[in-house]
Amino acid sequence: MRARIGRTLRITNERVGRAVLVFMAIGFAALIVAGAAAVNMVSRNQAHVDAVTHTYAVGNLLAEFQAYSERAETARRGFLLDSQSDYLRTMSTALNALPTRTQALIELTSDNPAQQRRARQLADLSGQHGTLLRRTVALVARGDRDEAVLAFRDRDEGLPLIAAIRRISADMAAVEDQLLAEREAGQRSSVANFFIIVSVAGALLVIMAMASLLLMRRYGRDLNRSRDELALLNRGLESAVAERTADLQRANDEIQRFAYIVSHDLRSPLVNVMGFTAELEAATKPLAELVDRVEAEAPAMLTEDAANAAREDLPEAAGFIRSSTQKMDRLINAILQLSREGRRVLSPEPVDLVSLLDGIRDTLAHRTDELDGEIRIVEPMPQLVHDRLALEQILANLIENAIKYRSPERPPLVTISARKERGRVIVDVADNGRGIEAKDHQRIFDLFRRSGAQTEPGEGIGLAHVRALAYRMGGTIECASEFGRGSTFSLSLPATSQGEKGEAR
């Protein structure tokens, strides 16, 4: 029977190891895909931003060029009607500003031959217009104002030039608007693809982590079942107890090391996902700013889908990924904590139960005072020789749970009593809380399993940790409860620690 159980454990361990390796491989592959998508997204997003900025720069230059041209023409007409120096200064300022705008337009449109050709046409028209304006000023300057006015009325050459400038400017603006729409559509497509890739990768990582945790839990149940079978086989056989305990301890150490390695390796891809999520959240800000700018300057070009994607969909998706990774991080930390405690060496020493419980009561005094509750210690209590820290962790956890899961109908009352029976000490922690349903009396000791409505924070490792410590100390923990009336947890330990390998200490 013992050999069969050993073979079962080895086979289970090999299967779990292979399954976890497969899960880790899938997780790393998902991270690689998400990382590549993030790098590609950042690169394409920067290219889109540069292209949109370039489009806006061309549009701004066109608007300035047209404004200066029309301002110069308006100043010329005002100067013909009333030869004031203010009109002349305005016209001169506008004419001086036009060459820099046309040259900048020619340089900015170097990547678009059609647009550059139109820019050069604007430069030629601007030159003709400037010549016309200077000729008008020259006529008025030498006293031929009537001739200048007559020439303006009979053959106004400025109006056709301004009309041509407006037409070409409008054509260039229309082309830039079309380019802006195409670039924004490409940007939206890139964001949508990135969102899909990251969401799938994040969901895959969460699924892999949960599958690993479920596999670990099943492995733990198998181990506990094997341990119970060993205990039944060796009952009454003192010589076989040490051998069975040693086998069980090796299996327990193995699962603790396994839990530590798995949880430690899972943290690496998890940290990467959290980092990529932070980058995704940071990337949403410039995208939202760009949408705000488009909405302010050219609302007709902004679609509702684009605005929602930048302002709501992408931040919401990043938040979902972050909350999922945070939950997975808490679960991994719980496994790490459990595995670390399992590796600590127990150091038995004489323990005064009353003194130890007084310390726990003092620590929780502020909480019980807030709730008008009481922690009652029934004296006298038998002496123990055990690891003080482990015993304190067990009792503190049970008392804290009794206060945490109190009944809303009455103040919490926790009563701790102890008695000695046939070389063992039984410590009872009784409360008047909300109680535990009969079907959950054993399930609450399983890792990540909790009973009743989840109104209190927790990861479901407290009682699993209590049971693991009790087993290591050579004891057991049991629960008796009536739903709605309260619960009693009974810790049974040998009065003197036998150590973790069966030798008396």
Automatic annotation (TrEMBL):
Residues 261-497 form the Histidine kinase domain. Its EC number is 2.7.13.3. Keywords: Kinase, Membrane, Phosphoprotein, Transferase, Transmembrane, Transmembrane helix. Gene3D superfamilies: 1.10.287.130, Histidine kinase-like ATPase, C-terminal domain (3.30.565.10). GO terms for molecular function: phosphorelay response regulator activity; phosphorelay sensor kinase activity; protein kinase activator activity. It catalyses: ATP + protein L-histidine = ADP + protein N-phospho-L-histidine. The chain crosses the membrane at residues 20-39, 194-216. SMART domains: HATPase_c, HisKA. InterPro entries: BphY/WalK/GraS-like, CHASE3, HATPase_C_sf, HATPase_dom, His_kinase_dom, HisK_dim/P_dom, HisK_dim/P_sf, Sig_transdc_His_kin-like_C. GO terms for biological process: osmosensory signaling via phosphorelay pathway. PROSITE patterns: HIS_KIN (PS50109). It is an enzyme of class 2 (transferase). It comes from the Bacteria. This is histidine kinase. It comes from Sphingomonas gilva. The lineage of its organism: Bacteria, Pseudomonadati, Pseudomonadota, Alphaproteobacteria, Sphingomonadales.
